Amino acid sequence: MEHRLSKRIPAKLELLIYKRGMPVATGQVRDASKRGLFIATGYSNAQLNQTLEIEFRFPDRQGRQFRRLKAHVVRKSDHGLGVDFDGIENDTFTISSLVQWLNKHRLPEAHYPEWQSALGR
């Protein structure tokens, strides 16, 4: 049985994945919490415990200001990566803003039935 420390929010937000400062893949946030994200991506070269950066912007906000956060890989699957913000120096305001935006624009949990069934939900 899985034990989560914070509630997951079903989400949809496009992002870029960076490794050592270079963009390596695109992805989409599928669920989020204040501790981390599940990113749907075909990128398979990430290693467990590796630090990556994710870059995103809020589509409904003025300007094209991008935000970047560091996260480490805690889970890999055929469908994407689970990343965690814990233990990495990040701007907590950016994490909070991301979770608030995703919560405000949240998707119904049934929006990704094939993704959820693949993850055993």
Give your account of this protein's structure:
The protein has one domain (about 10-105). It has helices spanning about 90-105, 115-120, and strands spanning about 10-20, 20-30, 35-40, 50-55, 65-75, 80-85. It has about 120 residues and is α+β, with helices and mostly antiparallel strands. A six-stranded antiparallel barrel has the order 1-2-3-6-5-4. The protein contains two helices and six strands, in the order E-E-E-E-E-E-H-H.
Features:
Pilus assembly protein PilZ, 6-stranded antiparallel β-barrel, cyclic-di-GMP binding, 2 helices, PilZ_domain, 121 residues
In brief:
With 121 residues, the chain is of the alpha+beta class. Helices cover 16% and strands 40% of the residues. The protein has helices at residues 92-104, 113-118; strands at 9-19, 22-32, 36-40, 51-56, 67-77, 80-84.
